[in-house]
Design a protein that fits this description.
Distance between the termini: 31 Å
Radius of gyration: 23 Å
Structural class: mainly alpha
Order of helices and strands: HHHHHHHEEHHHHHHEEHHHH
Length: 558
């Protein structure tokens, strides 16, 4: 067994081992059992004007999220437009063009972190540390909040409330995201990740005495939450492929673990919250099976799907990859960042082999439910579980049930919104873009690979990922405005649907399981769930994938 596979196995063991106690901790935090910072928490509630025991209706919970996110959008958008006259701008960077500011604000409040700019040459320290980093925390906190609202829908009986958004948001940030990000940032600084407010440094290079500008800034604090919150937006344009964001093997491992850690732990939290650990374990096993299958394809494609030359050591496809990371670390990072709603990179995805790039693209197109974003990935997977239960119920002529709640027409309408909005917007964005006469000028490649670059871009934007095939120019006014609108739609329509699904489930009685109740925690159901996920993905994207990466693969064989 090669070192690459041993590395992958060790990573998964470490990930699962840490996720179990973390999942239990998150459950205790979000259910109010761990409140060791209660005075601070209560102080925040007083500042917000909410009571410790407040509960919200479905509508009020959804409206609170939309208003809160809207205010965040306006503040971030305004900060970028006024950047030139605001403090903490030692390089005197100009204010951001309105369409790029719109796209970036939409990107960061939706936890997408699609970046049509290079941070070191576009955004000031204030914009990055106060604007973007704050949104990294709150957008991740919103995802966790909605997940636990949905969990309450399953655990409540005949209730018209689903919890309080302000309680959920405060606890998710105060007890989970903030302390873990602080600890990770400290460790990253010890590894050489930059964290300073000093101006950029001009140094003299050893070769020919040429001068070189080294960009600096408060990067470590943003990088920690970009990974833990499955945000992915880099402080510098090269993201985690840049030495000042990811300088060592230790920083690489810690950042990679952070991408999947909270989404993985939330599966454990789910099992604890519904009082049935087998349910959380079944979801986690499903995600791991899909992740391992995808990782195997990417690994094999990058290790063996390239040209070998006689007399040259076989090292796999090293194009676009850092030597310090190699093929193995780049492959597992690429798989993790597209399986989660992260999008950070330690290599250039446009340089992956056609099948390796296709697998990363397909993971996004599934709706980023293989771990997925913090909170959003799991409630997306729960939507697929409800769909699977519904299909199974139709097959045997029985009213479908999940966790003691009957699945009725309204619930299925909400499930369809959660599942279908991302693929519809992915295909719509791709179709509209390829029909534009100027689209060819935005690509560095023609033919099948050029189409893949467009398909990847809209798969990323429409699934809250943020990574890109670098051959696609994403900074045009069309892409900024159209892409920003898509990111807003695919974040808040499924999220609102998940909240209303929670409200409808909460208002129902809990049915005692009988002999005819479908088990949703055994091997058969896991297999059925995987089949439904693949069928939805295949039906939606196989034609587009055939025109892009599959055609690119066969073209490369010539």
């Amino acid at each position: 067994m090669s070192m690459i596979w041993l590395q992958d196995i060790a990573f998964l063991i470490l990930l699962i081992g840490i996720s179990i106690p973390l999942g239990i901790y998150i459950y205790r935090v979000m259910t109010g059992q761990a409140r060791f910072m209660a005075p601070v928490e209560k102080g925040i509630y007083r500042m917000l004007g909410v009571q410790d025991k407040n509960e919200m209706s479905t509508k009020k919970y959804a409206v609170s999220i939309l208003i809160f996110s809207g205010i965040g959008f306006v503040l971030l958008f305004s900060t970028m437009l006024l950047q030139e006259v605001l403090p903490l701008n030692p390089e005197h960077l100009k204010s951001v063009r309105w369409d790029l500011a719109f796209n970036t604000a939409a990107s960061f409040i939706t936890n997408t972190n699609w970046q049509a700019y290079s941070g070191e040459s576009t955004l000031s320290y204030l914009t990055q540390s106060i604007g973007l980093t704050v949104q990294n925390f709150v957008s991740a906190g919103v995802g966790i909040s909605v997940l636990f609202a949905l969990i309450r829908g399953f655990t409540s009986k005949n209730k018209k409330t689903i919890g309080c958004f302000w309680h959920d948001l405060t606890r998710s940030i105060l007890y989970i995201l903030l302390p873990f990000s602080f600890a990770l940032a400290i460790v990253l600084v010890s590894q050489g990740v930059v964290q300073t407010l000093l101006p950029y440094k001009v140094v003299t290079a050893l070769q020919n005495g040429a001068s070189q500008t080294i960009p600096l800034g408060p990067a470590a604090s943003q990088i920690a939450i970009k990974q833990l919150g499955t945000n992915g937006g880099g402080f510098f344009g090269m993201n985690s492929a840049f030495p000042l964001e990811n300088p060592t093997a230790i920083s690489n491992l810690l950042e990679l673990l952070s991408i999947l850690l909270i989404p993985c732990a939330l599966c454990i939290s789910f099992g604890k919250a519904v009082k049935d650990s087998k349910q959380g374990r079944a979801i986690l096993i499903t995600m791991i099976i899909l992740f391992v299958a995808a990782l195997a394809i990417v690994n094999i494609s990058e290790q063996y799907g390239t040209v070998f030359y006689e007399g040259v050591a076989a090292s796999g496809n090293m194009e676009g990859k850092e030597v310090i990371n190699g093929v193995g670390s780049s492959a597992i990072w690429g798989t993790a960042t597209t399986a989660a709603s992260n999008g950070s990179v330690n290599s250039m995805h446009d340089s992956f082999t056609p099948l390796g790039g296709m697998m990363m693209m397909f993971l996004m197109q599934l709706g980023e439910i293989v771990f997925g974003g913090v909170g959003s990935g799991l409630y997306g997977m729960i939507a697929f579980i409800i769909l699977t239960v519904f299909i199974a119920g139709l097959m045997v002529g029985r009213t479908p049930e999940y966790l003691g709640k009957k699945i009725e027409p309204f619930d299925m309408k909400m499930v369809c919104l959660i599942i279908l909005a991302p693929p519809l917007l992915t295909l719509l964005g791709t179709a509209v873009t390829v029909m534009l006469p100027q689209a060819a000028s935005w690509l560095s490649n023609s033919g099948a690979h050029g189409f893949s670059e467009i398909l990847y871009a809209f798969s990323s934007m429409a699934n809250n990922n943020g990574s890109a095939f670098s051959g696609f120019t994403g900074g045009t006014m069309f892409t900024n405005v159209f892409g920003g609108i898509i990111m807003l739609i695919v974040r808040f329509i499924p999220m609102t649907a998940a909240i209303f699904l929670a409200g409808d489930l909460s208002n129902k009685k809990i049915i005692t399981a009988s002999e005819g109740t479908l088990s949703t925690s055994n091997t058969m159901f896991v297999g059925l769930l995987i089949a439904v996920i693949f069928i939805i993905g295949a039906l939606g994207f196989l034609p587009a994938l055939a025109l892009g990466p599959i055609a690119d693969f066969f073209t490369a064989l010539k």
